[in-house]
Specification:
alpha/beta; 15% strand; elongated
Length: 259
C-alpha cells in the first residue's frame, strides 16, 4: 500500500490490474490525488466511465480533485453525464474549471449543481462571466482559496460588483484571493465586508484598484500584489500585519471621532 502511494499513475494502473485488493487500494489512491487537467472530451468520457464504476466500491464520493480544461468543443450530452455525478461529489476539495462560462452556457444546471456542493475549499474559475458570477454568488462551500480569471473577450461584459464584494459571503473562511483581467476593482461601499482570515491578495491586469477599500476589507493581510493593465505598473510587497492592525485601529478611531 505504501508503494502505491508513491507510484506514478501509469504504474498505479498496472498494479490495479493484478488483483482485486490492489484494484481497490489503487482506486482509493487515484481518487485522493490532485488529478491533471482533463483537456479533451474523450478524456472526460473515460474519466466519467472510471468514476461511475461501482466495483469494488462507489468511486464518486471519494473524488477529491476535479480539474476541467475542456473548451467549447465539449458536447451537452457529456456535460449531462458529469452533472449526474456531481450530486455524489460530497468529498470534493479542489475544483478547477478553465472555461467556466462556456460550460455553464452549454448546461446552466451544471453551475447550480456545483454551487450546491459544501465541501470545496479550493476553487479556480477561468473565463468568468455572468453565468460563472451567478455560480460564485450561490456557492455553499466555505472556500479558503479562490482564483478567478476573466478572458479578454469578456472584458466588455461589466459584472455588477468588485470580486471582493462578490465573495462577501465567504468572508469568514477565505484565506487567499487571486483575480486576473478584472477591468475595474472599485468597492461600492466605504465600509466593505471584512475578511479576517485573508492573508494573500493578488489582482492582475486591473484598471482602477480600490486601495482604500482593500485596506479596510483585509485587516490581517500579509501579502499584496497589484498589477495594472500596463504591465510595468506593479505593486507587490509583504505587509507587517501588526503595523497594519494598528493602522486599522487608528483609522476606526478617527472615523468614530469624525462622526
Amino acid at each position: 500500500i505504501v508503494i502505491l502511494s508513491h507510484s506514478p499513475c501509469k504504474t498505479l494502473s498496472a498494479f490495479m490490474q493484478t488483483c482485486r485488493h490492489l484494484c481497490l487500494e489503487g482506486t482509493k489512491e487515484l481518487l485522493r490525488r490532485s488529478l491533471a487537467s482533463i483537456e479533451h472530451e474523450d478524456k472526460l468520457i473515460s474519466f466519467l466511465a472510471f468514476l461511475q464504476t461501482r466495483d469494488p466500491m462507489p468511486r464518486i464520493p471519494r473524488l477529491r480533485s476535479l480539474r476541467l480544461a475542456t473548451s467549447w468543443r465539449i458536447s451537452r450530452d457529456i456535460l449531462e453525464q458529469l452533472l449526474a455525478c456531481v450530486g455524489e461529489m460530497q468529498g470534493l476539495l479542489e475544483l478547477s474549471l478553465e472555461h467556466a462560462e462556456t460550460l455553464f452556457k452549454i448546461l446552466p444546471d451544471l453551475g447550480s449543481a456545483l454551487a450546491a456542493l459544501d465541501s470545496v475549499v479550493d476553487l479556480e474559475l477561468g473565463e468568468v462571466g455572468e453565468k460563472a458570477y451567478a455560480m460564485l454568488q450561490g456557492t455553499r462551500s466555505a472556500l479558503r482559496r479562490v482564483r478567478l480569471r476573466r478572458s479578454h473577450l469578456l472584458m466588455l461584459v461589466q459584472l455588477p460588483v468588485d470580486p471582493v464584494e462578490l465573495l462577501a459571503h465567504q468572508s469568514s473562511s477565505l484565506e487567499e484571493l487571486s483575480c486576473t483581467i478584472w477591468s475595474a476593482h472599485t468597492l461600492s461601499s466605504p465600509t466593505p465586508t471584512r475578511f479576517p482570515k485573508l492573508r494573500r491578495f493578488e489582482a492582475d491586469s486591473v484598471i482602477r484598484p480600490s486601495l482604500s477599500g482593500y485596506y479596510t476589507a483585509f485587516p490581517n493581510l500579509k501579502a499584496l500584489s497589484l498589477r495594472t493593465m500596463h504591465r510595468h505598473d506593479t505593486v507587490s510587497f509583504s505587509i507587517d500585519s501588526e503595523a497594519l492592525r494598528e493602522q486599522n485601529l487608528r483609522g476606526i478611531e478617527e472615523r468614530a471621532h469624525s462622526r
